[in-house]
Amino acid sequence: MADWDIRKLQILRTLRERGTVTATAEALRMTPSAVSQQLTNLSRQLGVPLLQAQGRRVRLTDAARLVLRHAEAVFEQLERADAELAAYVHGEAGEVRVGAFATAVPALVVPAVTALRVSHPGVSVRVREAEAQEAYELLAAGEVDLALSLAAQAPTAADPRFTRVPLLADPLDVALPRDHPLAGADRLRLADLAAEQWIFGGSGPWSDITRAACEGAGFRPHQGHAAAGWTAILAMVEAGMGVALVPRMAAVRRAGVVMRELAADRPVRHVVAAVRTGAAEAPAVARVLTTLRTTADTALASPGR
Predict the structure, then answer these.
(1) What SS3 state is found at 178?
(2) DSSP label of 105
(3) To which H or E segment does residue 224 belong?
(4) Which of 22, 134, 225, 299 could form a disulfide with 130 if both were Cys (CB 3.0 to 4.6 A apart)?
């Protein structure tokens, strides 16, 4: 029987995800030579070639991919074992490390932490602000236990490393200058603003979300100004420079801005949490997920005027 070494299999899996020995070494805080030596030893132990030179890079052999396909079940079972051990040793006490994108921190994570301090003081939460790509790299590396992101930026359900948990559909409200003719209109529709100057990012997920929402309402938005931060976007709206779609989670009240809920064509952005496959059964992680869901249910009241 082949000698299956879990640590070396983790190195092989990281190489598959990172693509190069150097990047693998950086992710695992090893030297490149140590990574190469461990993989050479694993190849010898399993009796099959795992890497094939490709110019200055290496690629995984078919045998390596077969090994990893079976190893994923082992990794999942180990996560389950860790979860059960945590339940036995700590009950509902423990630390959960959360990586979350910027607007989710004040809108979801902070209220959840506040609620947990009262309901389950034995569960502590460490928060790390991180956008989607970094959050999932941290999750895969074991440096956070739970990652929050937009669904569009999350790994697909086919990724065996993670389990996705839907949290909420965050409505997109329209930010208008307070003196805009439609600021007080009844049953405002997105299509009513087709001729407006729109303010949104030049690229990235928020640009895609804004364009898709407007096109779904039957028009292509004219980008009058480009900005990525909500403070800058709302300042320009307040100055009468245009209108913007703003996630309700991200909205910050400004005296000169009216936030309007759309009567129809109500676009949303979906927020999800993700954990390593098998880890959702850890009591502390499950408690944080439950509290995040409760927080999500109460966080998105109508924006008012």
Answers:
(1) coil
(2) I
(3) strand 222-225
(4) 134
Read off the pLDDT band of 88 (50, 70, 90): low
Which pairs from 78-87 meet CB under 8 Å and 24+ separation? 78/6, 78/278, 79/276, 79/277, 79/278, 79/279, 80/278, 80/281, 82/279, 82/282, 83/278, 83/279, 83/280, 83/281, 83/282, 83/283, 83/285, 84/281, 86/282, 86/283, 86/284, 87/281, 87/282, 87/283
Encoded tokens for 208: 């895609």
Using CA atoms, how far apart are residues 184 and 136, in angstroms rounded to an integer?
A: 42
Q: Token pair 């150097």 is at which residue?
A: 22
Residue 145: how many CA atoms within 13 Å on its side-chain side?
23
Three-state DSSP class for 22? helix
Residues recorded for the chain: 305
The torsion of the CA quartet 16, 23, 7, 81, rounded to 10 degrees, works out to -70
Q: Worst-scoring range by mean pLDDT, 99-103, 127-131, 240-244, 297-301?
A: 297-301
24, 19, 44: which is closest to 35 by C-alpha?
24
Burial of 2 (0-12, 13-18, 19+ CB in 10 A): exposed
Helix (H), strand (E) counts: the chain: 10, 11
**Structure-block tokens of residue 139:** 């999750």
Nearest to 247 by CA among 96, 93, 112, 107: 107
φ/ψ region of 278 (left if φ > 0, alpha if ψ in -120 to 50, else beta) reads left
